[in-house]
């Protein structure tokens, strides 16, 4: 995370249900340090630090078949990160994969990139805008990171070009940052646009996102095809080995509340309270989900994307039904829609607003009174 990162959703959407943020925090949009403090508070409150084994590199996770049984155990090969030449093996009944999905950076294949004499970095390694002082900079890719990073760099750089292919780019984006189409080739001192025009730049920042990677799972356990992971039921449960559960597959949603729901469902599956459908039914459900996404206009690479329309809430209802517990409260969806609209219409100031959840279905905006750019959906 970069130095001046502020969370892009308010703290009420970054909360485990039943564990509110400290009352001392008056602002809704937290810094990365404040968000880390919340996680540490959670760990201390539930006294779970003793269950966390740090400095542990997981090398391999493989199923061990038990003769005469449909269930498997898991052989987990680990190393202490301070003694990587030593390996140990432990056997578990189940494995929950929580290894994140924003660490394996994606840099597209750009013709001529090797000739470029300027700086090239991926946003994963971006920390300070000062690195770009006085430079002409091209940012490729403009989703959350590309938007944030280009606005930060623009405060130090001579000129920033944000290069993207989005059709729904925020109209409130600063006009001094020039928007250009995505480029697929570079020269020794610049980028080449699709119409052949060359733009001279001193640095290129790739904000092109990340790709799934599970280096500890072999290809006969999971397959990744153009960012679609199979065989997985409900973006979470391994269809052939339901004791292998993933918490890191859905992209672009409000992570913390959903992680709580994942945890509830995982416990119910593992202790047998939730009975899963047959392997064939789960395969069909997974395929139907993929096909319905294509019908709704998503590209195949968005097989696990949750960030459009009401997709994450529909999905939450499916998980809740499977687990036999109530879905997340509707206030989260209302607040999510509001803050997404606000970011779109007011990208330079949206994080100045503060919110308060007032009920199961209601919230209010605390400030700045009356200056919201859009009609508030708050019902409280
Ligand atoms: N302040 C914050 O809290 C904060 C800030 C930044 C990021 N984040 C989080 O970090 C996660 C990752 O965000 P991210 O923005 O780094 O990744 P991302 O959401 O995957 O976005 C990557 C963008 O790059 C585009 N792209 C990829 N290849 C491209 C190419 N060759 N030419 C043009 N565009 C290209 C993608 O377009 P396609 O999708 O069309 O391929 C996409 O729009 C998100 O969950 C986000 O919420 C949080």
UniProtKB/TrEMBL annotation:
Coiled coil: none annotated. Transmembrane segments: none annotated. Pfam families: FMO-like. Its EC number is 1.-.-.-. PANTHER family: DIMETHYLANILINE MONOOXYGENASE. This is Flavin-containing monooxygenase. SUPFAM superfamilies: FAD/NAD(P)-binding domain. It comes from Pinctada imbricata. Its cofactor is FAD. InterPro entries: FAD/NAD-bd_sf, Flavin_mOase, Flavin_mOase-like, FMO-like. Belongs to the FMO family. The keyword Oxidoreductase applies. Keywords: FAD, Flavoprotein, Monooxygenase, NADP, Oxidoreductase. GO terms for molecular function: flavin adenine dinucleotide binding; N,N-dimethylaniline monooxygenase activity; NADP binding. The keyword NADP applies.
